[in-house]
Amino acid sequence: MLSAGAVGLALALDATVAEPPDTLHPVAWFGRAVAWLDRDWAAPRLAGLSCALALPLTAGTLVWAGVTAATALDSLVGVLAAGLVLFVTTSLRRLLSAVRTVSEATERDLGAAREDLRALAGRDASTLSGGQVRSAAVESAAENLADGLVAPLVAFALGAQLSPAVGAAAAAWVKAVNTMDSMLGYRGRPVGWGPARLDDAVMWVPARVSALLLAVAAGAPTATRRASRWVASVPSPNSGWPMGALAAALGVRLEKPERYVLNADAELPTVADTRTAVRTVALAGILAYALTAALVVLLEVR
Q1: Residue 32 above 80 pLDDT?
Q2: CA-CA distances (angstroms) from residue 134 to 74, 153, 267, 276?
Q3: Is the pLDDT of residue 255 over 70?
């Protein structure tokens, strides 16, 4: 039951605190440490790949050592430490709050909505319509459900078979991989090739699990089958699955201009559609926490 307690603590902290401020957030610290990689290298792919392998492993090792030391003091202290790690490596409430803010702003001040979108999606929003801004927000909600919640939870559940410390280290490793990809894994940045390819491998399962969770949360059992028709248009091998499942479940079109379109025959999301998307992603996130806790309990009593 110890690892399940860590999952419960992470959920409780997300619901009440949302996220620590950036000045106190270990993931933000890691991001600042990674930023120095974005420079000219004699062999940029080799440099990026080497750091993509070394830096997340370092983060995971430090977390394992810290949680192991806490567990040596007392098992409940170890659970607390593992729960804190899982809390800082996952995010749901802050994500959904940002999506709501952007969507509601599209009706009052489109310029402000475009500006607020920068916190959610890395695209030029200067010419986007209100519907396209809401599309980007909904896409971000679906993609970040996979990246920011399901992936660390899956890693924790697998690692917790050995101990809460290993589970916490696995969650930290996945979060570090994803952070490196989000900072460096862009077209035109050779140093980002290694982080991007590693993230593609790590996210294969969580992206598809997230699509299933969204289909269940929306009560749309055929959503993933319908999404499978569109995912090939998305450059990422993974993000199209949760985005496509949510597009199918809501009956809306999601698009990144000149890059991809999901559910092209539908209309762009309205504010009401975005509210439904937020509720769907919230329920999918709660299901993810619940299933993770149930899985670790089953594995502990096995």
Answers
A1: yes
A2: 47, 27, 12, 12
A3: yes
- For residue 258, how many other CB atoms are within 10 A of its CB? 6
pLDDT of residue 33: 87
Residue 223: partners with Cβ closer than 8 Å, 6 or more residues away: 211, 214, 215, 245, 246, 248, 249
Distance (Å, rounded) from C-alpha 144 to C-alpha 46? 28
End-to-end alpha carbon distance in the chain: 12
CA dist., res. 300 & res. 128, Å (int): 50
Q: What whole-number distance in Å separates Cα of residue 134 and Cα of residue 110?
A: 10
pLDDT mean over 93-103: 94
pTM of the predicted model as reported, rounded to 2 decimal places: 0.94
**Average pLDDT, integer, range 124-146:** 93
The answer to whether residues 52 and 177 touch, using CB atoms and an 8 Å cutoff, is yes
Could you give the CA distance from residue 223 to residue 210 in angstroms, rounded to a whole number?
12
Segment 120-144 shows an average pLDDT of: 91
Length of the chain: 302
CA separation for the pair 261, 10 (Å, rounded): 35
In order of 29, 59, 118, 221, the CA distances from 121 in angstroms are 21, 26, 5, 28
260: β partners: 256
Give yes or no for a contact between 139 and 121, defined as CB atoms under 8 angstroms apart.
yes
